[in-house]
């Protein structure tokens, strides 16, 4: 029997105060927004009015209008409009989540990304460097199975010592031993690494992974799809096309994938919109993306930690989410990440265009390497969703609903061992500053 879609159920043409929690609705409904804003000397109010009218007519926004959303549009009104668009696409009842974990098979990597604290560089001493073999990965799969996960998001550094056969073997063994768990493996840069090691084309690598049993691809490695940014923070990963070509080929061989974005470092608002424009165009071409997942850069222990002056806070996150929902008119699902932005921020994000609460992430090591720690339980996720005024629904990797949560989640059922969120961030100013002290970044590890 086909699984029910997480798509439209009951649709509404505009958000009513009744669908918002009593403590939130007075501030987030468009009819009860903040006091009237004075006219912008450059006519920004007219730009916002144009955007509202275009969204109402179902028309596509331009890149200039996308930049306006990130810089000048009224935040609460934009959030309410994004929520209205979300309700039209996915209904107002459910917020979905996935039971997953995010282990890694190696932390040896040759790419020297300036934003990464996780990798260890081959040839340099590191007592904590590791590479797991096939059975080591299967132990991770067994742990995921014991925890009830339906998805394992497995990624690793670009380690040239790993043979091509390893990648297809772990997909094949995962499918054989744990057929109920989706192997959501490998970022776009890892696919490029496999092509180099195997001598195959990008499409040839993806066809081999598909034959082994892989059906979905995570969106990691996108960062910001703008040439200037990628040259400054991850030059060895290539330009935007390096990431886009992998996902185009993945869709062509029958895989679905997610699109991601890591913002809050060296990019400008125009470069965020350039990123959104790239993935919107590819979605027009292939219709292969399931969701968009943005998160903010965490600078602790990274090579460019001392160079980034401001960390993007909650207001910028809400603005990015809402702008993404309004600009990405061909994406059904946008994820709110409790993990990277905090649980309360994640709850509010459900009224700024997001319809999904992400995963349980029982294991995660990349953010942890920066000093960012955030843990949860299934019961807590369902409670957070209910507190926000929605019905929790467990989904699979392709956003099909597996189970609608029954009954209220009791706070007393939450794990006493859930660590407190380690938050070491400063709020981004209202304007979007030039965030680097200078043009040169610190030397990588």
Automatic annotation (TrEMBL):
Catalytic activity, as annotated: dehypoxanthine futalosine + S-adenosyl-L-methionine = cyclic dehypoxanthinylfutalosinate + 5'-deoxyadenosine + L-methionine + H(+)
EC number: 1.21.98.1
PROSITE patterns tied to this protein: RADICAL_SAM (PS51918)
Cofactor dependency: [4Fe-4S] cluster
Residue span of region Disordered: 1-22
Cofactor comment text: Binds 1 [4Fe-4S] cluster. The cluster is coordinated with 3 cysteines and an exchangeable S-adenosyl-L-methionine.
A GO term for molecular function: iron ion binding
Residues in Radical SAM core domain copies: 95-332
Biological process (GO), any one: menaquinone biosynthetic process
Binding site for [4Fe-4S] cluster: 109, 113, 116
Top-level taxon of the source organism: Bacteria
Pfam family, one: CofH_C
Keywords from the UniProt entry: 4Fe-4S, Iron, Iron-sulfur, Menaquinone biosynthesis, Metal-binding, Oxidoreductase, S-adenosyl-L-methionine
Chain intervals with Low complexity compositional bias: 1-18
Pathway of action: Quinol/quinone metabolism; menaquinone biosynthesis
Family: Belongs to the radical SAM superfamily. MqnC family.
Role this protein plays: Radical SAM enzyme that catalyzes the cyclization of dehypoxanthine futalosine (DHFL) into cyclic dehypoxanthine futalosine (CDHFL), a step in the biosynthesis of menaquinone (MK, vitamin K2).
Name of the protein in question: Cyclic dehypoxanthine futalosine synthase
